[in-house]
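Interim report, section 4.2 (structural modelling).
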Amino acid sequence: MDRSNTVRATLVDASDHRGGWTPTLDARLSALESPVGEALGPVLESVADEPDRITIVPDAHYPFHPSSGMVTDPAVVGAVLEQLSWRTDATLAVAGASTEYMPFERTAAYLGYPDLCERTGAELVDLAPESGDGDTTRHVFPVDDRSVAVSVPERLREDTVLVVPSLRPTDEGHVAGGMRTLGGFADAVAEPAATAVAATRAIEPACCLLDATTVYGDEPYAANALFAGPTPLVDALGASLFDTGFDDRAIELAPDATETATGVEPDSGSAPQIRVDPVGRAATDPTVDFEAQLDTLRTRLQGGTLPSSDDTHPAVSIAYRLYAAVGGDAVPPQLELRGGS
Amino acid sequence: MLSSTIGRLTGSDDLALGVLGVGNIGMVHLKSAHSMPGVEVRAVADALPENRARAERAGVPQTYDDYTTLLEREELDAAVIALPPFLHADAVERAAVAGVDVFVEKPLARSTEEADRMLDTAREAGIAVGVDHTLRYQPDMIGVKSEFEDGTVGHVPYASITRLNDGPLGRPPVENAPPSWPLDPDAAGGGSLLELGIHCFDVLEWLFGELEVQDASTDSTLDIPVEDAATVLLRAPETETSITLHCGSYQWEQLPEVNTRLRLEGITGTISNQDHLPQNFYAGAAKSALTNVLRRFTDDEPDVFGPTFYLQAHYEALSAFCEAIREGERPPIDGEDGRRSLELAETAAELAAEKNTAELDPVEVTR
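Predicted structure of the assembly:
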């Protein structure tokens, strides 16, 4: 496990690409190969020593197009798999979790994971609590002065896990992050934030690689950045970029998790101490002003939220229903009260 | 049935209508029919309990969980078929047995072959087939046609149409499980070409006359089994117009905006559908709403879905069909029109597939 308060950051060279998105998977893989290796750095060497199985856990919650920033770019996962396949004979896997809306098998297929996995012989597994694919074990952790019980897939406890989240907000306006990505695999009765923190403690990911190649704030932005480090720390960095700061419950609950992960006690209050260490192109390319790029990323993400629901704004719906009642018009189905009259 | 009087089955002055499938678009048809003078919605059928409950809340007196039973038990003059495409042929066959005219949601069928079978069945049974191609009824398209017919830009050597929408996978936040049939080529018959392109083919032939498909390409932005983007090069011999058509089910749709662009580039200027849409949707909607409220006090009929032009177009399309049935006339957009749009989409899909196959073929190296 990476035990430091440092997040490694690097940039992907996109200078020879037109537009903010490269549609060809091979071209993205090629561009990501070095930066992924640089961001993971020593972690890559240490996990490669693991003899058994290494499981990558991307944000693949729904088949949104990766150019939207709403899911991890499968090419980032592909680059991690390639880096590992060169260094280790361990079995490689990519894990996801089916949701109430979408089976992981379908999401993975639409995002192109089967082909990607085939290249390195990695297996693709659905470890959702309801999937019945493998055993789960129950663990209890103190979170915020209370005990939180989570059941997580035994497999994620046994394997060396690299979590690869996207940099985007959740429906509730928190940073999606590594902890919440892992929380998606947990069965618990606690609130989602506490579940995410407890699941992270149970799984003990070796590292979190934050895919900020394309991020989503109020709109997608091709940031071409990667951040790697202990999961709570990387999540705290992500939250700070959105300026949601420590209103994010999972981050608020995470300082002690950060301490557990890094061995470094937060200096004061609830704010984990984060040092961002530019590596690779971010550190060596004289044409790159990394601090300026980080500021731009912060500006683009600040206060970012997901689009409003497909449903029209509630005020418009209410006004339309009032108009329809007075004007004798029909109410469009999209503006109807759900489940009511 | 192309009879000259309605109520041949029902004995009523109102046109007795059934709605088969009350998902999103079926619900629009149901609400349209409910508001239509001289039309009585007798029953709806839908496999999903939540859809049936919604229809009951909308005032439908009888609901069924399958359309077969509805057609067997209810005495109808016409039925709206708003089921997934793989059920259209079966529903038309059963309507034919019951002698009920049908208004079929687009695409009429999954292939021209299937459409031919459906139309043969309908012909033999003597039932009328209408198809829901709504673009012709949108005020912006009517405005474009009017300008074009008036010759306001002279000869039009080039036109372009783009229709973009979100596909079944939608956009965040995720709130519903997406239906699987739109991404299943066997169930849907295809992707974006049949979902969106088919509207464009219909409106283009309405404007320019018979079209020839010259070239096409299709693409999928994700690893899905149907195309979610298509670009087609067309030629209209009668008006000597070259046309490009692009349809895509990949864009996050932001209601109430509907992303359809039609431009006719003429000798003296451009005709654009954007010039026939309200500059500000909400201001336009508010004006329509106010007009409708005033009409109520003057006892005039309100425009149904007044503030939403694209839903109003669905109302107009169904209303025109019902009027034709009532008068014993051929539906204004009939099965042959639906088949023709399907034929153009099919030709485009075949051309694109040939090209894709050619790209995949290994290059033969000769020494």
